Amino acid sequence: MDGGSPRELTPEAMPIFREGVYLVLSRWSALQMAVENEWGGRDSHRKADQLASDIISWFTQSREPLYIDDLENMLDEALLSLNTEAEDGSIEEIAYKLMTMHEECLEGNFQSIEGLREASRQEVAVNHVRQVVNDDDDDSDSDNDVVGNENSSNMILDAPDSSSNLNLVEMPVDDSGPKVASETDGWVQVSRRRNRGK
């Protein structure tokens, strides 16, 4: 995986690889926290997008051998531009995932990217169910419908007092912090789990 002459991705593989880079970066906690909290200033989101573009260019336009150390340096510098340091080994882990994913795409193997897509879809679906449950709790007469709904009933079990079915008692699904959904006109951010306590 380290070194060697770079090979080119096929036209079919290129957009899939690009998607994979964004999926990997979207699951990197250190980067996402830095962007969400704007630790790198108001243009933190732009810096993260630039990192994704730089990574894609590095893999696809480099005429030199690709070394994982160079990729780790790029990731580290991007975090530093966001006033963030990762001492949890995540830089090495992300670099390894990206290198592996690139190798797989060169071979026409997109399984790891499909796995990332599926994990992302499942997270969005779970958070959507949580949103629906919170919305239904706010609709005073719909508590019985939520409890009876097979897909939503598991989410009710997370509530601190799931035995109570009173319309006057709010049953938050997210027991890790304040009730976000009731305070934001029914809209919650579903793509990231770290803000659940916000």
TrEMBL record:
* The UniProt record lists the keyword rRNA processing: yes
From which lineage does this chain's organism come? Eukaryota, Viridiplantae, Streptophyta, Embryophyta, Tracheophyta
Listed A to Z, the keywords are: rRNA processing
Where are the annotated segments for Disordered? 134-198
Could you tell me what this protein is called?
Pre-rRNA-processing protein TSR2 homolog
What cellular-component terms does GO give this entry? nucleus
One protein family per Pfam: WGG
| Residue ranges with Acidic residues bias | 134-144
The biased composition feature labelled Low complexity covers 145-154
Return one Gene Ontology term, BP aspect: maturation of SSU-rRNA from tricistronic rRNA transcript (SSU-rRNA, 5.8S rRNA, LSU-rRNA)
Name the species this protein comes from: Juglans regia
User: What family is this protein classified in?
Assistant: Belongs to the TSR2 family.
